[in-house]
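comment on this one:
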Amino acid sequence: MSQKSIARDELAKYLASTLDITRFRDYCPNGLQVEGRSQIETIVTGVTASVALLEAAIEKGADAILVHHGYFWRGEDMRVIGQKHTRLKLLLEHDINLFAYHLPLDMHAEFGNNVQLARLLGLLPESRFGEDDLGWLGVTDDAMVDSVGALAQRIEQRLGRVPLLIGDPAQKVGKVGWCTGAAQSLLGDAVAAGADVYLSGEISEPTVHLAREARVAYLACGHHATERYGIKALGERIAKTFGITCHFIDIDNPV
């Protein structure tokens, strides 16, 4: 049986429609960022389009790479020099397509990083908050996970990361707000929405003070660690829908 394939432009249209990319004001272009060959049989998915991921995709014979963190971010140096040159040269020399989806992949109700992380951590969504409803609010699925310390232990077990905890481990969990990646800026929205605990990928110096003053426990679980699951789920759906080969490759990142 011959390997199935999908046209590059057909895949781009499917992803644009599925992820509803036009509704977002994002920091980078969502969709096809670097054009490669017109037919796609094999896709590699990963969090960030690093050289390590590109090299792994080349080894897999990939026709396309699908990531959460791509290129051409707002405010970055536009010159094609240094690492940008290295990355683009690898893609162009091997005729590989690069697709990237940032905010659309964070919030999607089925494949999004937030809903996938919720399933992994046993969080039951009840409502949304913040711009574009990026933040999620809910409760834990287990009455035994009733303290911030117990929730931190669950995160360590299921993400393989020890979260940085700002607050009292004995505090009752109550309502949990979460948003993957670098979503510390949504802490104020989470507080307004009624969160007792806020979970995200990162935290900075001023956010520590805001969490303490609002008496909201903050669990910083790692940017990469909270965003591995949406892109993996999306790749699995593409493989199932179109019958093409899709490999998820997790390039280790401790941040």
About this structure: The chain is about 35% helix and 20% strand. The CA atoms of residues 67 and 100 lie 5 Å apart.
